[in-house]
Q: What sequence folds into this?
């Protein structure tokens, strides 16, 4: 009897095939095989919000293959992932293949192992249509918001913008944090540290009390105050007046959920949420970890037993003190029913190091250590606090040592800080007293980790949405990353956010968005129907949109800011937002001159780090000072520094070289500019010239680009990747690469369909 198993990923299909016999054939649907059309709303709002699905062009080949395979098989099993998205993918496949959804056979598994696959095959179930309804409701909600609100933004702000039910809330968080930072009042304060010595041990201590008064963070305001204290106490040894010693127990961490994995990977490995989920997907589909979209901290009983056996054999009985079960406290927790863990705890990171791509291995190492640590005993530390006095001033030293490392043996080992043996009334020498200047810091910008944490705390989104939501607000130009990979809003984000907050408050309201998520959970549980839920949201939203379309103007949304007068002309300097972002302009441009395209005022783009809300007259004058003439090159051409649509650059009018931080167009020297130009000209020299392309007739050359070596005929560019040596590429190989690139469908930007769960983000 031949059986067809349909999954959503070709990698997953390949892994599953290894565990099955000849009677089974495993094929992939390549994500969703049906979606709402791109050219229209695709939802009948007048008749129960019925969606109109189509088979996209890129899916038709896969559908044909699946239909053919289904006819040749005695039984079809739907085996997409075990969450709402996976349930919907299975339902779409059943619909397209003509299988009655109520009679379709569905199998699910939390890990891709032989045991899990065999168990799933022995226990098929029916499709859960409540989960399907919940996924469809989410998709329809996001389509209603995106397809109705985005054109409104095109009309009132600029073309190409988008709005989304979850992405707009995430954008609001980033915008409001930046405004908190701008409003923050920075204050100076000082601290005093002592370099202490007892016998041969040197250790630090910090001033915590002065003349009976505790030294809080902001107590010492100026350098003069700090130096006055140092003058009082220097040259005299410290006397130990108090020693406090206590033991501290640290509980092991809980296993990873989707959000905690994204947070840890960002903090410890520097990975974005999107990178983390891409690598986790690879690890899951190749059978190394369990399903990676989950908000459960539960672990399977079988794994708990295996973990205790492994820990005892690897580290001894002291590190295997019994199974630990963790309860998921998060309200509305759903998706999968187990935490993210390795499928086999005996597959240590050391064992897999040569078989995994380096970044995937780092993530696996993190997951393996965190999971095994959750099943180990807590750590016991000894903490010591020593207070030392001199002339009624108290300095404090802290030390710690490990009594028993417990889970820290493999995860987040504690750093010991040793102090010398001290007792009350001992004298301690002071080698150096150092005053240190500090400034209060504004709230930090969001990282991927802290934004995921904020979204989770507000109850916004679900495990499958965090990473794509962050990716979306970056790709749409609302958010960018600074030099520390932290998130900050663009000028257009602030404009769109204010527009939504003022005129569509429900779209960006935290509680309202969280409640919609709760209602989607209720649909998944079958306690409410999705039709009435969608109607309750859509009718007031649509009515408000129609009204605002009629009454709001672009000037209402994007008012100009007059910063002051230009010292040289006396004309007002105006900050405005245009097609390519914010800029400053000297004087007004009359409608008559604008129509005739004459007397255009001098203008300049804002420099990186500036924004239209906080830019000052001085900032604007700096921007308007560009372009700067830097000097003459050896060949007699003049070099200038300027700012354009794609950022700051230097140029001799023929070659343009980008200016990267820490260099600035305001301060770059002639010599620095010459170096940039030389590097740009060197990069423009082809690595190889391979003759003519038979299709385009263009010259085939190999060049080095921003993302590595590539081959081009002047029209089509094809990356060589890491496996092809650019110096040994032949003409025929280059022609093949270019032809393959031409045959690929063009990349589309803007609104996206839900080809996979990674794009289903609102």
A:
């Amino acid at each position: 009897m031949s059986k067809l198993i349909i999954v959503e990923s070709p990698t997953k299909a390949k892994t599953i095939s290894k565990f099955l016999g000849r009677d089974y054939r495993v094929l992939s649907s390549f994500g969703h095989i049906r979606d709402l059309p791109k050219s229209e709303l695709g939802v009948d709002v007048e008749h129960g919000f019925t969606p109109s699905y189509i088979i996209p062009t890129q899916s038709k080949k896969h559908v044909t293959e699946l239909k053919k395979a289904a006819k040749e098989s005695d039984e079809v099993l739907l085996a997409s992932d075990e969450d709402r998205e996976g349930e919907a993918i299975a339902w779409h496949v059943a619909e397209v293949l003509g299988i009655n959804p109520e009679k379709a056979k569905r199998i699910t598994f939390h890990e891709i192992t032989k045991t899990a696959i065999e168990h799933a095959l022995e226990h098929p179930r029916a499709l859960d249509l409540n989960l399907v309804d919940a996924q469809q409701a989410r998709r329809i909600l996001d389509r209603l918001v995106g397809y109705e609100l985005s054109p409104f933004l095109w009309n009132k702000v600029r073309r190409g913008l988008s709005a989304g039910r979850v992405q707009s809330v995430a954008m609001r968080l980033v915008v409001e944090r930046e405004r908190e930072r701008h409003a923050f009042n920075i204050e100076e304060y000082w601290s005093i540290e002592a370099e202490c010595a007892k016998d041969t041990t040197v250790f630090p201590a910090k001033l915590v009390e002065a003349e009976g008064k505790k030294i809080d963070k902001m107590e010492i305001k100026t350098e003069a105050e700090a130096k006055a204290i140092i003058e009082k106490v220097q040259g005299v040894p410290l006397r130990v007046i108090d020693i406090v010693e206590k033991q501290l127990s640290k509980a092991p961490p809980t296993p990873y959920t989707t959000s905690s994995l994204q947070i840890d990977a960002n903090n410890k490995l520097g990975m974005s949420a999107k990178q983390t989920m891409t690598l986790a997907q690879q690890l899951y589909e190749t059978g190394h970890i369990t399903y990676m979209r989950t908000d459960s901290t539960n672990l399977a009983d079988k794994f708990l037993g295996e973990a205790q056996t492994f820990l005892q054999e690897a580290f001894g009985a002291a590190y295997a003190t019994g199974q630990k079960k963790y309860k998921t406290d998060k309200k509305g927790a759903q998706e999968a029913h187990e935490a993210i863990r390795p499928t086999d705890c005996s597959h240590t990171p050391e064992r897999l190091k040569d078989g995994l791509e380096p970044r995937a291995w780092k993530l696996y190492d993190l997951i393996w250590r965190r999971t095994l640590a959750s099943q180990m005993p807590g750590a016991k530390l000894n903490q010591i606090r020593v207070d030392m006095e001199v002339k009624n001033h108290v300095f404090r030293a802290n030390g710690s040592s490990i009594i028993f490392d417990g889970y820290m043996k493999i995860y987040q080992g504690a750093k010991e800080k040793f102090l010398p043996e001290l007792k009350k009334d001992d004298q301690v020498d002071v080698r150096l007293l150092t005053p240190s200047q500090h400034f209060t810091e504004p709230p930090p910008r969001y990282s991927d980790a802290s934004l995921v944490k904020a979204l989770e705390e507000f109850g916004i989104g679900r495990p499958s949405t965090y990473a794509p939501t962050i990716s979306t607000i970056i790709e749409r130009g609302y958010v960018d990353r600074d030099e520390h990979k932290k998130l900050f809003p663009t000028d257009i984000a602030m404009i769109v956010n204010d527009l939504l907050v003022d005129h569509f408050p429900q779209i960006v309201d935290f509680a309202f968005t969280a409640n919609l998520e709760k209602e989607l959970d209720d649909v998944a549980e079958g306690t409410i129907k999705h039709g009435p839920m969608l109607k309750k949201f859509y009718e007031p939203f649509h009515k408000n949109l129609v009204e605002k379309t009629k009454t709001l103007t672009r000037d209402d949304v994007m008012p100009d800011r007059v910063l002051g007068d230009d010292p040289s002309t006396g004309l007002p300097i105006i900050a405005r937002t245009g097609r390519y972002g914010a800029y400053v302009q000297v004087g007004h441009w009359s409608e008559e001159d604008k129509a005739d395209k004459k007397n255009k005022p001098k203008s300049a783009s804002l420099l990186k780090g500036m924004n239209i809300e906080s830019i000052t007259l001085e900032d604007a004058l700096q921007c308007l000072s560009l372009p700067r003439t830097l000097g003459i090159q050896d060949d007699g051409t003049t070099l200038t520094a300027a700012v354009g649509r794609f950022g700051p650059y230097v140029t001799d009018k023929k070659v343009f070289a980008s200016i990267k931080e820490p260099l600035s167009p305001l301060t770059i020297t002639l010599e620095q500019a010459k170096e940039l130009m030389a590097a740009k000209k060197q990069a423009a020299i082809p690595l190889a010239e391979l003759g003519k392309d038979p299709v385009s007739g263009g010259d085939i050359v190999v060049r080095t680009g921003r993302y590595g070596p590539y081959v081009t005929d002047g029209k089509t560019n094809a990356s060589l990747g890491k496996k092809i040596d650019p110096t040994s590429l032949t003409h025929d190989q280059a022609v093949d690469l270019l032809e393959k690139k031409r045959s690929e469908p063009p990349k589309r930007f803007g609104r996206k369909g839900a080809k996979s769960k990674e794009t289903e983000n609102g």
About this structure: The chain has a mean pLDDT of 92. The chain has 22 helices and 27 strands. Residues 129-156 form the longest helix (28 residues). Residues 267 and 449 are 7 Å apart (CA to CA).
